[in-house]
């Protein structure tokens, strides 16, 4: 009976070792699956971030485009105002020059009359 018990004990130990090794392999395979799932989740997150970044960038670009259009319109409006005001100012200057010239003539005539 002692040989039989000894064999049983050896078979039990070897079977236990075999099960532990199989568990170790299964645990390693499970770890690989977990890492694969984490990788897939992170790849989805990165892809989502790319989409968010792209949409945010497009939105910023649109806003900057609107700002640019508004600035161009303001510049055009100011240039138009300058042209109109410059023309009006030039007319006023012409009138002032004419008035100064008239005063100069009046002063010359007045001086000539005083000399007489």
Estimated helix fraction: over 70%
Radius of gyration, whole Å: 49 Å
Q: In terms of structural class, how would the helical and strand content be classed? A: mainly alpha
Strand content bin: under 5%
Record field, number of beta strands: 0
What is the straight-line distance between the termini?
166 Å
The largest pleated sheet is described as: none
Q: Point out poorly predicted stretches.
A: none
In short:
By secondary structure, the protein is an all-alpha fold.
Topology:
Blueprint: H1 2-115
Care to describe what's here?
The chain starts with a helix and ends with a helix. It has one helix at 2-115. The longest helix is centred in the middle third of the chain and has 114 residues, at 2-115. With 116 residues, the chain is an all-alpha fold. 98% of the residues lie in helices and 0% in strands. The chain is rod-shaped and about 165 Å long. The mean pLDDT is 90.
Structural key phrases:
0% strand; 116 residues; 1 helix
